[in-house]
Write a structure and sequence with these properties.
alpha/beta, Beta-glucosidase, binds 2-acetamido-2-deoxy-beta-D-glucopyranose, signal, single chain, 16 helices, TIM Barrel, 8-stranded parallel beta barrel, Glyco_hydro_1, beta-glucosidase activity
Length: about 600
């Protein structure tokens, strides 16, 4: 049975009359003021800040092997060529080689003609310097507590709870043309006027060692990052040659994590699918579900499996957690793309397990919890379940329940829907070790003006195909939560409801909050010192983490981890103004600074048993 959202307990406002007949009485004011001390000299000032430093990780943690060496060898496809390409060989003419330097050059020339790609002054890997204790001083007390959950004060996280911070290659690496990389669909943002390009971003391609050292200095045990597909396979597809420099880069990144005692959680693709998959369609416009990143290309599944095979063969021994695909709904383009993601994910999951992989594998579900505008209105409830059917159900029905894609999807996107056979559904079922979800916020859902049915029949309808309308304003006029610089609102209670919805609807054995975070309003416009004292972000994390404890202890939901987005401010798909980071990055100097939220995030776990 599906979890239906029940009516929220009615809030009855009892308004006291503004003018009271009786004069105010203070009969109960019995507190006796203390006697004055003799004069000002007896007053002493105390410091509100402390020099309690962040606790770094132990660096000599034992390294577990997650895939046997023999499997890694066996998994490598035969006949794979490993080579290099160089952006400075503009006059190459090895056209007889379909994967040669000339073809590599052509990828850039046809994709970004006349574009001069800027770079940062540093162009080799920078060794980490120790993080000075002066940047690890705890911030002053925040002066608030998310305290309407009195029990949560005493609740603790399970000992093996996964605590981490996240990033993704396309949003932090920069160096887009260096060491063999070819264009990804994200590079399309570089063409649109008014949007910031991804040429430099956080220059993490060369600063990763320092970034890992900083995570370790703050005592964060997991780092969730993604690998850039076009750095590993510049020509993307099955059978194409491997880029040695890409492999070396991520090998060193993973080894650097281990050296600092940080466990790597690796996403195989996070929004930066190779341009190769849309090369002949020529354009990454929005398709009817979401951005078209090439998933619907007929070569996608085989290519993704081949790419994953190479990652497992190279890095499988050292990676405990693999995410196959980031938020498939938002990268699929259309239903065809979703079917490809389902198939690709399942094949990669099976491959990993067949090679004796001992780590965990999942994909990450899209963010945003839909709640009915009026929980007592069945049309709103229906619209809400439909909203969730699209965002979560297309992947989750087959993966978690062994059921076909929801009927609300197949009966609407008729031209691309296919009935998945019982054999296929049996093969898809259970192919995820935990339910990964990025529950940033919540939104109210209700039907279109002309109703769901009329919309579903009309592909020209502005809300087709999911055919639901959304708003952040509740039916009684209040905004859903404290606002930010973008779509996330601070909605901890809805977060808890979301965890319950997932637990009952898809019945996973475990849930991981694989991304959550808050872009503080107008943070980018503030002075550095003010950016660093990012109270709303701390409040967001404290509130959500408290609700995670409530989910675990009061609702009996097995939440196994919480990964904060993001490790640092980064390139938010065409903008540097959406600050989700727990560190500031100066875009001129590339210097990093810890924000207070980073300390508060880590401290919350320390004060709850970890
Ligand atoms: C303040 O009070 C103390 C204790 O009575 C006294 O010793 C001191 O002289 C006073 N200081 C001033 C500035 O009056
Ligand atoms: C690139 O520059 C050439 C020469 O200036 C020009 O002919 C061509 O139209 C430009 N291409 C684009 C896509 O702007
Ligand atoms: C699909 O991907 C292949 C590479 O795997 C590419 O050659 C082809 O052009 C792509 N199709 C379209 C329509 O872009
Ligand atoms: C992509 O297509 C859209 C809509 O057709 C068009 O406005 C845009 O200029 C195209 N972008 C590129 C890079 O070709
Ligand atoms: C299916 O229909 C939608 C809506 O008209 C359209 O955007 C899409 O391109 C169609 N898909 C195919 C494969 O024709
Ligand atoms: C969506 O809701 C808004 C009110 O919040 C309304 O103005 C608009 O017409 C609705 N759109 C559709 C297509 O129903
Ligand atoms: C959608 O709009 C197009 C272009 O205006 C039109 O040709 C087509 O008939 C419309 N389709 C439907 C189902 O109304
Ligand atoms: C970044 O660094 C430059 C050079 O030191 C400085 O002028 C600028 O104010 C800094 N930006 C911020 C936001 O602090």
């Amino acid at each position: 049975m599906r979890f239906e959202i029940g009516p929220v307990a009615a809030i009855v406002a009892v308004c006291a009359p503004l003018v009271s007949a009786a004069p105010p009485v203070h009969a109960d004011h019995v507190v006796k003021p203390r006697a004055h001390k003799p004069n000002r000299s007896s007053y002493s000032f105390s410091s509100m800040t402390s020099t309690r430093y962040a606790t770094p990780l132990p660096t000599s943690s034992p390294v577990t092997t997650y895939m046997p060496a023999a499997s890694m060898k066996a998994i490598m496809p035969s006949g794979v060529k490993t080579t290099t390409w160089n952006k400075n060989e503009a006059s190459a003419s090895d056209w007889d080689n379909p994967y040669g330097q000339a073809e590599w050059n052509r990828r850039w020339a046809t994709f970004m003609p006349n574009v001069s790609i800027s770079t940062f002054s540093v162009t080799t890997t920078v060794q980490a310097t120790p993080v000075p204790s002066s940047s690890l001083v705890m911030p002053p007390p925040a002066g608030f507590s998310y305290s309407d959950a009195p029990n949560a004060k005493d609740y603790t996280f399970p000992k093996d709870f996964i605590v981490g911070v996240a990033s993704s290659a396309g949003q932090i690496e920069g160096a887009i043309q260096d060491e063999g990389r070819t264009p990804s669909v994200l590079d399309y943002f570089n063409f649109n006027a008014g949007q910031a390009p991804d040429y430099i971003t956080d220059w993490n391609y060369y600063f990763y060692k320092q970034d890992i050292a900083r995570i370790a200095a703050m005592g964060v045990p997991y780092y969730s990052f993604s690998i850039s597909w076009t750095r590993i396979l510049p020509f993307a597809g099955a059978g194409t040659p491997v880029n040695k420099e890409g492999i070396d880069h991520y090998n060193d990144l993973i080894n650097t994590c281990l050296e600092y005692g940080v466990k790597p959680m690796v996403t195989i693709v996070h929004a930066d699918e190779p341009y190769e998959f849309v090369m002949d369609g020529g354009n990454v416009t929005r398709s009817y579900l979401s951005t078209n990143s090439g998933a619907a290309n007929g070569t996608f599944v085989d290519s993704f499996v081949y790419y994953s095979r190479i990652l497992f063969a190279e890095f499988g021994d050292r990676v405990p957690i693999w995410i196959t695909i980031n938020e498939p709904y938002y990268e699929s383009g259309n239903l065809e793309g979703m079917y490809n993601f389902l198939e690709a994910h399942t094949q990669v999951y099976d491959l990993y397990k067949s090679m004796g992989g001992k780590g965990m594998v999942s994909y990450k579900n899209a963010d945003n919890f839909g709640v009915p505008l009026d929980p007592n209105n069945q049309e709103d409830v229906k619209a809400t379940n439909r909203y969730q059917d699209y965002l979560l159900g297309i992947m989750s029905n087959p993966t978690w329940l062994g059921k076909d894609v929801p009927e609300s999807v197949t009966s609407t996107c008729t031209n691309e829907s296919r009935a998945l056979s019982p054999e296929t559904l049996a093969r898809y079922k259970g192919k995820s070790d935990f339910y990964a979800v990025d529950p940033y916020t919540a939104t109210f859902v209700f039907p279109p003006d002309d109703g769901i049915d009329a919309c579903a029949k009309d592909p020209n309808h502005s809300l087709w195909p999911n055919c639901v309308n959304t708003t952040s304003i509740s039916s009684n006029g209040w905004e859903i939560g404290f606002y930010s610089n973008s779509y996330p609102y601070l909605t901890p209670k809805y977060f808890r409801a979301f965890m319950n919805y997932i637990w009952d609807t898809y019945q996973p054995q475990a849930i991981m909050v694989s991304e959550f975070g808050f872009p503080v309003f107008a943070e980018a416009e503030a002075e550095l010192a003010s950016q660093l004292n990012d109270l709303p972000r701390s409040l967001y994390y404290e509130a959500f983490l408290t609700e995670i404890l409530n989910c675990i202890h009061e609702d009996g939901i097995n939440i196994i981890g919480a990964i904060g987005w993001s490790m640092l401010d980064n390139w938010e798909f065409g903008s540097f103004d959406e600050h989700y980071g727990m560190q500031v990055v100066n875009q001129t100097t590339q210097e990093r600074y810890f924000k207070r939220s980073f300390f508060d995030f880590v401290d919350f776990f320390h004060s709850h048993g970890l």
